[in-house]
Structure prediction request, 752 residues.
Amino acid sequence: MSSAWRTRVGAVSAGVVLASCLASCGDGTGGSGPPVLTWYTNPDAGGQAAIAERCTAAADGAYTIETSILPRDAAAQREQLMRRLAGGDSSIDLMSLDPVFVPEAAEAGFLAPISDDLQQSLTEGIAEGAVQGATWDDELVTAPFWANTQLLWYRESMARAAGLDPAQAQTWTWQQIIDAAASQDSAIGVQGTRAESMTVWVNALIESAGGQIIENPDAPVDEISLGIDSPAGEAAAGVMQAITAAGVAGPGIDNRDEAATADLFEQGGVMFATNWPFVYAQAQQGAEQGTVDPAVFEDYAWTTYPRISPDQPSAPPLGGINVGVGAYSEHQQEALAAMECIVSPENQAAYMISDGNPAAALEVYDLPEVREAYPMADVIRESLQTAAPRPQTAYYNEVSTGIQYTWQPVSAVSDETPEISEQFVLEVLRGERLL
Amino acid sequence: MTAVTTPQVELANSPRDKRRRGTDRSRQEARLGWYLAGPAFFILVLVTGYPIVQAVYDSLFSYRLTAPGDREFIGLENYGVILTDSLWWEALANTALITLVTVAVELVLGFALAMVMHKVLGFLRPILRTAILVPYAIITVVSAYAWQYAFSITTGFMNAVVPGVPEDFDWFANKWTALTVICLSEIWKTTPFISLLLLAGLAQVPEDMHEAAKVDGATARERLFRVTLPNMKASIMVALLFRALDAFRIFDNVYIMTNGAAGTQTVSSLAYNQTISRLEIGLGSAVSVLLFICVLLICFLAIKVFRVDLARARGEN
Prediction:
């Protein structure tokens, strides 16, 4: 091959590569086809990718949805999304967002507005807590997708042996389960690691005692008033102290998250555990695959979150994921249409069955396939209706991390913890402390 | 006029001035050196200098990434907040402790490994060198996860292996045991690096000196302390400096193993928390500037007080 020929071939090849890149890389449309929407999802068992495929097919060529996976940890998901949105990243068309970070994103103008009509249709038949978690400044800024809640999981035979009546399980208090665990020389699976799960626990305890972490979440940062140093905060600290004093915290509490709690419960290391409903699907799969003793799985029982006092219903933790549209997306109309498709009750039901994450739409719990997969569907629905969201504030990260710093390790929680925690969080919010 | 100019010409051509300005050839070589290294040097200054200047500038503001409109000049207030916070001093103490312990242990272990690599002959040499270098080839995050899993109360096996440790002992729940695992992981990972630097120093010690010492009846211990170590002082100091700077910026191991819990926060993780987690660019930049000043202090101490000569370490003397 002559030198001139090689040069011509090289030039043509480079031209072809350049032209194809210009055609397909530049506008995010995949050439002259429909716009390609990128949906940043939290890691799951593949359910969101399946929904993306279904919605792409349903769009009939109006748009294509591709998924891109965010980090595993909720805080890391927020870090990545906020940094990229602060940089005006137009590739974020759709995002799966933890409700606690919605105010921060909305306040910063990172979420595309949703029309009144769409707001109306996105909130019909949705659990109240999930709607609250999707709202900021009286406007729905994201669409509730799934709405998690924690239940109390227990080993039925051991609870009976401890003298507890499962028929009365919904009225069980923390003190009752602490005493029962101590009597059986067992433990309670709570999450004591320095992570979001610690805030989930503290918030649920304070809310169950009739208090709230932030008393005026809409106030400017320097006027925020906290309710940690309160009778409710003292009750929350009292539960943790009682767990430590009774020796029922179980092994490795200071580094135990939800996954470790689920493993511990499967292995019989604890007789009670507060955890999300994914534990059931996980144990069922383990029993089928032989990693979990089938007798242990058969002994699984569940009820609503434990109470602080016998005469006051608990306020279970509320979690979940919302779907938002990026304010810098170049295809906002298509993204809003895709969001409506993603959060449809049909997709929520399919996602609940495939990935074990409870739907935000209450009608889903009446579907026979959901009730078959989740024998505790009614308990989840009831829990969702009484669940209390974590503080809705644009400074959630500071509040949550401040709580994690001051309430961990659980064994060090004392009568002074609520006061120390409130003071610390306030100083952090005022920019007077490091985190 | 002539009387005035002549001495100047003589001065310019004096041997002393020639030594100062160098010969034509050396000047040409210096120029060539700048032509070759200049672009890289300027790019390096740009990519390191710009962020440093930007960080110093940002550190003077109250500036949150999600609220750019509320940005406000506050002078040195961020530094005041940091330096009066016990968390900063705890993080600084942890970082200094990790640096001291790991560098000291790595120096001794690294020297022993360097001696082994230097002395072993034949087909074993490449195998041994590769085996010793394997930990250094592993990404720090991967190594941190491996150590965390090994010591974890749920997935770990160390409680079954280490004598006298209870089965349900949580290494990461206590500051000192957590720091011990962090230091062990750091030592395992970076000892090969220090041993490589020391191996280069060992290779520079002339064999003649050893033979002369042997002839004079010096024992192995005397040869080590009187011949080997003094002749590789420059290499040792450079290895110490490089590792100390590296160790002082420790982040990955702490982030993976404890995320700063149980009082194991370090200066780098503190900077990360303010800048990346809280998105407080001003406060985080101030922590980063203080970290930079600490690193500069270590360099100053090493170069001025301990007289580390980087040129000698390169074998230019």
Chain A touches chain B at residues 75, 79, 82-83, 86, 104-105, 107-108, 110, 193-195, 251-255, 260, 263-264, 394, 397-398, 401, 408-409, 431-435 (CB under 8 Å). The first strand of chain A starts at residue 36 and ends at 41. The CA atoms of residues 279 and 408 of chain A lie 24 Å apart.
